[in-house]
Automatic annotation (TrEMBL):
It comes from Ascodesmis nigricans. Residues 125-172 are annotated as: Disordered. One of its GO terms (molecular function) is molecular adaptor activity. GO terms for cellular component: Atg1/ULK1 kinase complex; phagophore assembly site membrane. The lineage of its organism: Eukaryota, Fungi, Dikarya, Ascomycota, Pezizomycotina. Residues 31-430 form the Autophagy protein ATG17-like domain. This is Autophagy-related protein 17. Pfam families: ATG17_like (PF04108). GO terms for biological process: autophagosome assembly; autophagy of mitochondrion; piecemeal microautophagy of the nucleus. InterPro entries: Atg17, ATG17-like_dom. Belongs to the ATG17 family. Keywords: Autophagy, Cytoplasm, Membrane. It is a peripheral membrane protein.
Length: 480
């Protein structure tokens, strides 16, 4: 409020009466009730200071907990990524083995199809081959159907019979049970691999779902920069509150001084004593007109203090809630660590061990499948080689028979010639030679027998086109 000094011209005002002074005194006394506003403001400021100090501690704890939780979340994500990468890697290896299995199985099935279509010549069973069709006879080389080394269609013809057994094929010699057993074991291994992948995928899915929930909950916590920005407002807030309360104290002091002056002036007037300050009434008149404005200003400052402190308390409550949320998240992370995070690495190790064992098992069975395909591939070639071998033996037998026939013919010729020579000798010289000069003179020529030894079985009578086809296939295979 103003002091007693004044400057500039003033319009004359009526002299204040005792009633006026009494009214000023009562108004000044009422204004002193604003003292409670100042007291309340000081209490609020003290409360705000305590809340701000505690907020600093809470903010630091929130930042620490959030950073700690973020680190745990990052570790869990790395573990999840590691598990996913390892599973994808092992799945890729599994798919590679599956591709090799499909290739080997296709090769084996193709070979088995060839075996089903490869009829074993009836000659190998002791049966005579069936009649040649006209197209087959036309396809024979010139004179082949009259070659004595090969059976003719007329020699091999037989009457058709509805009860004739079906032709055997090379597939009749295949161990289908062994193949099916191998494929069944492979299917079992594949199912085991798929089940283990599904089990790990289910466990990992629960892991990622829980982790996603924790990440979402953690995102509701403000970042460290947010906490720092909140803390940065504390100092200006305290400065504002202190400034407001200091100003309120100054205003209250001016009201108190005004009250004291009103009280002194009133006593002097009531005692009919001269005023100690002649112009005091002018000052009191002017100040009394400002009392309501000062009181209103006090209320305005108090409202500012109250709203500012309320914001501080709201921020404190918010921080307290954040701490509670962070501590609850810590508890959730602990449960997640025990039930998921700590269990996932051992589960992955167990999965890897199982996958390696199954991969080894599948590789062994893949090798078996490949060996079966190679074996039956060889069987096809071996049958063709058998046909060629029979043809070779037939040729050898034919040549031996020709040599034997030639030897018999020559021996018979030599025996005949010898007989004629002996008769000629006997007629020419026999009359002069005594019988007892050589006891063996009349002995017959020692003869020779050329005959086939026992054993050796009968060779299959294969048709010429069968042999030529086998020779051609063997030449094609050798040229690859």
């Amino acid at each position: 409020m103003a002091t007693s000094s004044s400057s500039g011209p003033r319009s004359p005002e009526p002299e204040p009466t005792v009633d006026d002074l009494t009214n000023w005194f009562l108004a000044a006394k009422r204004s002193l009730s604003s003292m409670t506003l100042c007291q309340q403001a000081n209490v609020l400021v003290d409360t705000a200071k305590a809340a701000i100090q505690e907020a600093s501690v809470i903010s630091a704890r929130c930042v620490f907990l959030r950073n700690s939780l973020q680190d745990q979340l990052n570790i869990a994500r790395q573990v999840s990524k590691m598990v996913q990468m390892r599973q994808d890697q092992l799945r890729g290896e599994f798919q590679k083995i599956l591709a090799e299995l499909d290739s080997a199985d296709s090769r084996l099935n193709a070979t088995l199809a060839v075996l089903r279509d490869s009829i074993v010549d009836p000659a190998f069973s002791g049966d005579e081959p069936s009649d040649l069709s006209r197209s087959q006879r036309d396809a024979l080389p010139n004179g082949a159907d009259h070659d004595p080394d090969y059976p003719s269609s007329s020699a091999t013809s037989r009457s058709a019979s509805p009860k004739r057994p079906r032709d055997r094929t090379l597939h009749d010699f295949v161990d289908d049970a062994a193949i099916e057993d191998l494929k069944s074991r492979l299917r079992g291994s594949i199912d085991s691999v798929q089940e283990s992948h599904d089990d790990l995928a289910s466990i990992h899915s629960h892991f990622t779902t829980s982790l996603s929930g924790l990440a979402t909950a953690l995102s509701h916590l403000p970042s460290a920069s947010t906490f720092q920005s909140k803390l940065a407002t504390h100092t200006p807030t305290l400065n504002l509150l202190e400034e407001k309360t200091e100003h309120m104290g100054t205003l209250l002091e001016s009201l108190t001084n005004h009250f004291d002056r009103c009280q002194s002036a009133l006593r002097e007037l009531e005692s009919h004593l001269p005023l100690s300050a002649p112009d005091i009434l002018i000052v009191l008149r002017r100040d009394s007109n400002m009392v309501d404005d000062v009181v209103q200003e006090l209320h305005d400052h108090f409202a500012t203090v109250d709203s500012t402190v309320q914001k501080t308390q709201d921020s404190h409550v918010e921080l307290t809630n954040f701490v509670a949320l962070a501590e609850d998240l810590v508890h959730q992370f602990d449960e997640f660590t025990i039930s998921h995070l700590l269990m996932l690495p051992p589960t992955l190790v167990e999965f890897e061990t199982q996958q390696m064992a199954l991969a080894t098992e599948m590789q062994a069975r893949l090798d078996e499948l490949i060996q079966l395909a190679e074996f039956y591939d060889g069987f096809v070639g071996a049958y063709d080689a058998l046909v060629v071998e029979v043809a070779r033996r037939m040729g050898v037998q034919h040549r031996m028979e020709k040599v034997a026939a030639e030897a018999i013919r020559r021996l018979e010729t030599m025996e005949k010639d010898d007989h004629e020579e002996r008769e000629s000798f006997r007629r020419q010289w026999g009359v002069w030679l005594p019988v007892d000069i050589w006891p063996g003179l009349g002995d017959p020529l020692a003869g020779w027998d050329v005959r086939k030894r026992e054993g050796g079985g009968q060779l299959p009578k294969l048709r010429k086109e069968v042999i030529e086809r086998a020779v051609m296939k063997g030449s094609t295979t050798a040229g690859r």
